[in-house]
Amino acid sequence: MLLEALETCVIHSRQNSARTAWILTNRPYSSIAFFDLEPLQINLDQEDNVIDDIKAYIHIGVARLVKKRRAYEAFARQIYQHLELRADRMFLLVKLLLDLILLSTDSSRRGIHTTLDSLPDTLSTIYERIWASIGHGD
Q1: Helix or strand or coil: residue 37?
Q2: pLDDT tens, 110-120?
Q3: Alpha-carbon distance 68 to 104, whole Å?
Q4: Cα–Cα 20 to 30 A to 56, which of 29, 44, 96, 138?
Q5: Helix pair 76-86, 91-103: axis angle to 10 deg
Q6: Measured distance CA(129)–CA(70) in Å, rounded
């Protein structure tokens, strides 16, 4: 579970009582002072296990993709490799890339290669592509 409610965090202090506050966020709030406490920070982007977790997530995602689109089975390894190269340690990026691959209408060898080669490299590029695909009412 990711808790991102720092703006609404209210801390009630009691004298002489032990307290533990957990603030989990993907935002860079390391400069915020919490009373006189020295916070323990764990940067998951620097943890070695993140890479293994991303690889496992990609593996499962590609397996699910192949179940939905059997034509992709012959290209599962290539899809995995493309996603691994673009993952940039972000689960959301992988998930959105898998969604884009699934939405591709051309399941031919050439179509799959074109889709893989045209995958965005960043979240902002994916968001722009999604936004552009949404029909805007006049």
Answers
A1: strand
A2: 999 999 999 99
A3: 12
A4: 29
A5: 140
A6: 25
69-110 pLDDT, tens digit per residue, is 999 999 999 999 999 999 888 899 999 999 999 988 888 889
Q: How many domains does the chain have?
A: 1
In the block, which residue shows the tokens 């179940």?
A: 67
Residue with tokens 């590029």: 125
Q: Given its phi and psi angles, is residue 43 left (phi above 0), alpha (psi -120 to 50 degrees) or beta?
A: beta
Supply the range of the domain harboring residue 18: 1-138
Residues in the chain, overall count:
138
Q: Which residues contact 98 (CB under 8 A, 6 or more apart)?
A: 61, 62, 64, 65, 83
Q: What is the DSSP letter of 34?
A: B
For 57, 121, 137, the CA distances from 128, given in Å and listed in that order, are 24, 12, 17
Quick check: 51 and 89 in contact, CB under 8 A?
A: yes
The tokens for 54 are: 């991303």
Q: Are 122 and 100 in contact (CB under 8 A)?
A: no
